Amino acid sequence: MLNQKTIKLKYIIPLSITLMVMVNCTLDSDALAVYEGGTVTRKELRDFYEIRGVKLDEKNSSIQAQSNLLEQIALQKIVYNEHTSSGKISKEFMDNLVSLTKGQMLVALYKKDFESKTIKKTPMELMTMQMVVLKDPDNSKDALASEILTKLNSTSSSKELNKLVTEYTEDESRKSVAGIIEPFCLNCGPNPFEDVLSDALNANDDNFHLKRAGEIIYIIKIVNIRKINQSVVNQYLSEKFEEMSKTANEYAESTEDEAAKQSARYYSDGDPVERGQSMGEHISRQFKTQLWQTELERIRTESSIKVDDPPMLKQASELKLSEFPPTRILASISETENITVGDFAKDFSELSKIIGNNGQSPKEQEMFDMLNFFYNIYLSSLYLEQDPKSKSILETEIYKDSIQYLKYSLVWALFMKDIASEKIVVSDQEIRETYEAGKLFAYSEPDKNNPQKRIPRPLGLVKNQIQNDLENAKRKGIFDGKINTLKADYKLKIDSESLRNGKI
Fold first, then answer.
1. Are 106 and 394 in contact (CB under 8 A)?
2. Which residues pair with 31 in a beta bridge?
3. DSSP E strands: which ranges in 333-490?
4. How far apart are CA 263 and CA 244, in angstroms?
């Protein structure tokens, strides 16, 4: 039989869980920004961070950063409602835009989910090696290299080994650290030492191995290969740089050569923790990129979509329109469904009203932009939409919400494009007045004979720069004016007191 204490716990625990759920729901529905006709909730703010893949920390999600983002979301929603309710943007136009761009939301969310899961179970492979470098432009050091190799492989003392490497290596920058090469990642992309490491990697032993590459002879030993979780790579690298710093200090104390002492300072004077963090962040980015590229290649090869190799074009002037008739097939989705140049051009023309020049570019440029978008952006999402692993993303609430946020951002881009397209008039008088005001500052150059003195540049040389400066200033004024009008007309207010630094 349950005693009274057990009964209380039986009901208190579910009640606590229920209260926690209610609190979280309340937080999600909190109106953090209010304007006439709508709100921006805490959930919407959180969604924006998640969709964009921005890390929640004191820098990216400070109270000021959250306030700025809330204002941006609110303004986008206001502009969206104005454009759609007034009929300035039709449903068909919006549907076309979304059909071309929604795949990018799928790719972004799939990538985020893929990385979070894969990185936890896929270790980084970091290799440390020790190397003697001999410069041999006339092929005269083969015998010396063999002699050094024998000495190194017959030495068991690590202290003596380091002394030999320091003595023989001609890489002055690494004498102070006994030829140690700081750890680099083997599975983060192309291996910069692949050619010279092949023998050492294949041998899988503790010996040094000799390899010539052009005018350089490398005598290499793989010290170790460590499998490290990405979350602790910074700490691991900091420890390695600390070891190298101690070795460099010992080397500097043992030599009277000032040049050698100076070379050692690169490792001895730097902050090992800072250096480890910097390098760790760099190779972590490489690691994520490599994992993602591998996943994209899997998705592409497993897809039934057939696509010819993209045309090798660096610029629009290389493109021949005759090679891209409307009937040319860009992709075969199935035996009965194709995407042709004509089909895609029709849809892309709507998007070009936002990202292009509204049909005002030369036809070659329009075709070049369209092909660039198709092969570099649209195609990835096309492959992913067919991949079974993406189905779980398509069913999530965050994906469905992201489509609505996508609509806001598309209309906002159109709103910004309209402002950028407004004709700005700058008079000669304004140019002259601006020149006179800035000819000793922005529109001047130092006197070669007296660096403390500045000489005005002739008006004719800076007239175009001044005109651009004035046009940009006026356009910014138009934008600021429209934003301030929207904020005033809709009585936009941000509830900063409900925000927490570094958290949402």
1. yes
2. 41
3. 338-340, 444-447, 450-456
4. 13
Give the number of other CB atoms < 10 A from CB of residue 203: 11
Burial class of residue 77, CB neighbours in 10 A (0-12, 13-18, 19+) = buried
In sequence order, the β-bridge partners of residue 128 are 224
At residue 193, the 3 state secondary structure works out as: coil
- Give the per-residue pLDDT at 9: 41
Q: Tell me the C-alpha distance between 278 and 55, whole Å.
A: 18
Taken as a whole, the chain contains a residue count of 504
> Which tens digits make up the pLDDT trace of 374-410?
999 999 999 999 899 998 898 899 999 999 999 999 9
Element (H, E) at 239: helix 233-254
- Compute the distance between CA of residue 439 and CA of residue 455 in angstroms, rounded to an integer: 8
Instruction: Give me the amino acid identity at 443.
Output: Y
Distance CA 263, CA 240 (A): 18
Gap between the Cα atoms of 186 and 222, Å rounded: 12
Give dist(CA 283, CA 305) in Å, integer. 33
Distances from the Cα of 17 to the Cαs of 12, 23, 43, in angstroms? 9, 10, 20
198-229 pLDDT tens trace: 889 889 899 999 999 999 999 999 999 999 99
pLDDT in tens, 459-492: 999 999 999 999 999 999 999 999 999 999 999 9
Rounded average pLDDT over 21-32: 68
Task: Report, in angstroms and rounded to the nearest whole number, the Rg of the chain calculated over CA atoms.
Answer: 31
| Of the candidate ranges 17-31, 39-53, 90-104, 108-122, the one whose mean pLDDT is the lowest | 17-31
d(CA 160, CA 124): 31
For 53: left if phi > 0, alpha if psi spans -120 to 50, otherwise beta; the answer is left
Please enumerate in sequence order all residues whose Cβ is within 8 A of that of 131, keeping only pairs 6 or more positions apart, or say none: 165, 169, 171, 174, 179, 181, 218, 219, 220, 221
Prediction pTM value: 0.77
- Mean pLDDT (the chain) is 89
- C-alpha closest to that of 370 among 412, 332, 413, 313: 313
